[in-house]
Amino acid sequence: MTSISNADSSTGKKSKLLWFGFGLILITLLLASSALYMNVRNRESDLEDVLEKQETMFATGRVQNITLWLSDLVVQGDRIVNGDIFRLFASDVDLLEGDVASLFASPGTSPASQKDDVSNLAQQLPMMRNMLREFTSYSGFLSSRIVNKRGETYIASETGVPRLTQEQMDRVKNVLETGHTAFSNIYLTANGMVMDIFMPIFPPQVDDGSEKPLSVLILSRIVTPRIAEFLKASPMDTYKLGTYLVQYNEQNNKFELVSSNSGADNSMRDLPTGMIQRNAEHLEFARRLGVMNKDVYSLGIKVPGVSWWILQEVDYNEARAELDDYIRTAVGITILLSLVLILAVTGMWWWLVGNEQRKIAGRVQNLLVYIE
């Protein structure tokens, strides 16, 4: 009876030992998994912090450079719009009440009441045209023109200029209404990417904006080389960031890619819908679908005064390559250590079970000897 009681006691001990072993393995696996998860999350957070800081630094620098460049273009245009001779001429043209065609008509075709005024303006016209042409040439602009309140060109650096497009006409009206300089979207021409600058010409002696502009100076500039310069890769870039200049196209209410530092010709391609909000000043750093429809970490900053954004992107998988290698290694080591622990606990359990079995066998043997 004593041996049977001891056997039952041994079975209970083995059962408890078995559950203890399982519990130890489970707790160890949970602790190892939690430690691995926290370590990976910390490393991932550190990586994202570094990427955000680097993308912010480069995007901010490029936006500042573009802003300074645009300001410099406006300063160049101020030589015309602030020149007394152009202001006086604009004021005289405004008195024609939109009859710009009379400036270019032969003397006999103008009304008698306007012959003297028109003749005087017509005599000044070649000089004004030459001054504008010279300014355009030495300032590096592609072309320039001055239009009246109706959007009619009365001075141009080139002959045979086309009529204003609807988009240009809308910007002229906006400048006449607000009195503020405006920039067009970048558009493609045979000469490359071009941008227009619309600058108000006020009446003489008006510098405080108390009166509406009389005319608008339109300056066209080839921007291809400068844009490429702004977007080119920096030697300080350790993650090979993709840099993109995008703009909002009011004609189709979509964002479009203007240029990038990738070297691929994707100009004026529409961006994924919803990527940037129309009135957003910043595109927050996050993982998202990028300009080229790839999984990326990206952020964006708007260029003040224009509908342009600088986007910085880095390929998600490439940025995480080192982290992913670490995760695979860490997971492998964790699994290996867990297997070693399982084998150790299992081996210990079998050894204890075997030891108990030997003890029971010895007691049974002693009992049989006693009975005999």
What's the order of the H and E elements?
Answer: HHHHEEHEEEEHEEEEEEHH
Q: In percent, how much strand structure appears in the residues? A: 15-25%
Shape: rod-shaped
N- to C-terminal separation?
Answer: 16 Å
Radius of gyration: 39 Å
Q: Counting H and I runs of at least 4 residues, what is the number of helices?
A: 8
Structure description:
The chain has 372 residues and is an alpha+beta fold. The chain has eight helices and twelve strands. The protein has helices spanning 2-81, 84-94, 101-104, 115-138, 166-178, 224-231, 316-319, 321-371; strands at 143-147, 153-156, 182-183, 187-189, 192-201, 215-222, 242-249, 254-260, 269-270, 282-289, 295-303, 308-315. Helix 1 (2-81) runs antiparallel to helix 8 (321-371). It is rod-shaped, with a radius of gyration of 39 Å.
Question: What's the topology here?
Answer:
Blueprint: H1 2-81, H2 84-94, H3 101-104, H4 115-138, E1 143-147, E2 153-156, H5 166-178, E3 182-183, E4 187-189, E5 192-201, E6 215-222, H6 224-231, E7 242-249, E8 254-260, E9 269-270, E10 282-289, E11 295-303, E12 308-315, H7 316-319, H8 321-371
Antiparallel strand pairs: 1-2, 1-6, 3-5, 4-5, 5-6, 7-8, 7-12, 8-9, 10-11, 11-12
Helix pairs in contact: 1-8
